[in-house]
Design a protein that fits this description.
Elements: H1 7-10, H2 19-22, H3 35-43, E1 51-55, E2 58-61, E3 65-66, E4 71-72, E5 76-78, E6 83-84, E7 89-90, E8 94-96, E9 101-104, E10 107-113, E11 118-121, E12 124-130, E13 135-136, E14 141-142, E15 153-155, E16 160-162, E17 170-172, E18 177-178, E19 183-184, E20 188-190, E21 195-196, E22 201-202, E23 205-206, E24 210-214, E25 217-220
Length: about 230
Amino acid sequence: MKYQIRTEELFDFSHTVVGDFFKKCEYPWQALEHIGEWIVTLGEELPAECYDRIAEHIWIAKSARIAPTASISGPCIIGEESEVRHCAFIRGNALVGKGAVVGNSTELKNVILFDGVQVPHYNYVGDSILGYKAHLGAGAITSNVKSDKSAVVIRTSEERLDTGRKKVGAMIGDLVEVGCGCVLNPGTVLGRGCTVYPLSSVRGIVPSQAIYKNYSEISLCERRHTKND
């Protein structure tokens, strides 16, 4: 199986406003410590005719739909034509891409959601990056801290990559589908276009285009999407 863990292998940079920043990161988790500063830098350059600055370091597109019960802390950018639903909790360092959905009681913290991402029902997404049109089913969460609080390590068959961070959630490639009730353990990497069965507990690396049922049952499938779907 071919593993995809480098930033350029997982994501199409044209589907996020921080694409130029992202290109400087060989691995996606290297972006986590920079999300807040990227948002502030970019926010100052956003066109006033398209975005409202509602508070310090919080920019919301005029075309976005924000429920009055949502809680939003900065730094944060809510992209054009996106939707933030009832009781969503955005804790800061959050970039919500164009046309994305942040759903009922979903919590975001230190995340980048590429364009078209859907985290629509009771999801926790922390210290994570979700690629273009990635989708988390209801109740799916990213676990971002190991039980022993040690630094998260990404392991492949050939190398051991210490992230140097105690908090690393999931790196989810473009067009990934995660079923309802899944737990993505710290440092999980989901290759572009893969599918995760409902109620799965996932750790490690899932190859591009794979179907993940459990740790011992991962199968490869034909590409279901094109890069620009």
